[in-house]
Amino acid sequence: MNAHERAAAAAVTAAKQSEFARLYGHLLVEGGTERFYDRICDHLGFPGQVSPALLGHFAGPTEGGWEVIDVWPEEHAMEHVFSRYLVDAVSAAMQQTGERFDVEPEMREIARLVVGPSAARYSLDKGAREKSALRGVRPIGALIENLGGGEEEYLLGCKLLGFPEHVPDGLVLHIAGECDDGWRTFDCWNSAEQCDAWFAHVAEAIKTVDGGTGTMSQARFRRIELVRAFVNPHLTGGGYLAV
């Protein structure tokens, strides 16, 4: 990424953070399966039909189950989709699969949103998943929950990393905000290799911020092997990432 692209990414970050995305929904379904998720999507007609209020959607298997991250402009939009469409879709999926799961996402405010240039490189059309595979794109999600950590520690870590002034290659989207145990970040990356390269630096930053106090020593990191990643064009200036 050249200097112009980095400056543009930083400008998009500031503008879109304040104008659009304010909330994210986090759902970790213990024991959840791709089969159950696919039945929900089939019932919703997703991704063929997408609510214009949905700004981002990331889903895939993780340790012990299935994980979903959704990005929304405000709570009313999310509640409208959930109450009018998702409840029925979940019920239908349970009937079709015979599986029973607790599907109740937690909603959190977004403190920082970073949209990488990679988010605008792909078009949403039939066969997008196959096309992305041919391009060598294997999107990966990375989630960190810092037990005891908070915004102060997060911002200090960002300063050490030069982020978001420096947007690492391959970053599609980054969100950060509070969670029950402290602070949570979620990233979507074009590849596991790009993700691992960046998080090697993140691990060093966490050690520096912790300073031997143990505040962030219990930070939990996990991957999400994304089977679907979607970014609304409102956040990318006209492009989609759809896998």
Characteristics:
alpha+beta; 7 helices
In summary, what is this structure?
Helices cover 38% and strands 27% of the residues. It is α+β, with helices and mostly antiparallel strands. It has a single domain (3-236), classed as 2-Layer Sandwich (Alpha-Beta Plaits).
Which SSEs are present, and which pair or pack?
Layout: H1 3-19, E1 23-30, H2 34-44, E2 56-62, E3 65-72, H3 75-97, E4 106-109, E5 112-115, H4 128-134, E6 140-147, H5 151-161, E7 171-179, E8 182-189, H6 192-210, E9 220-224, E10 228-231, H7 233-236
Antiparallel strand pairs: 1-3, 1-4, 2-3, 2-10, 5-7, 6-8, 6-9, 7-8
What would you note in describing this structure?
With 243 residues, the protein is α+β, with helices and mostly antiparallel strands. Residues 7-18, 122-135 and 238-243 have low confidence and may be disordered. Strands 4-1-3-2-10 form a 5-stranded antiparallel beta sheet. A 5-stranded antiparallel beta sheet has the order 5-7-8-6-9. The chain contains 7 helices and 10 strands. It has a single domain, classed as Alpha-Beta Plaits (2-Layer Sandwich), CATH 3.30.70.100.
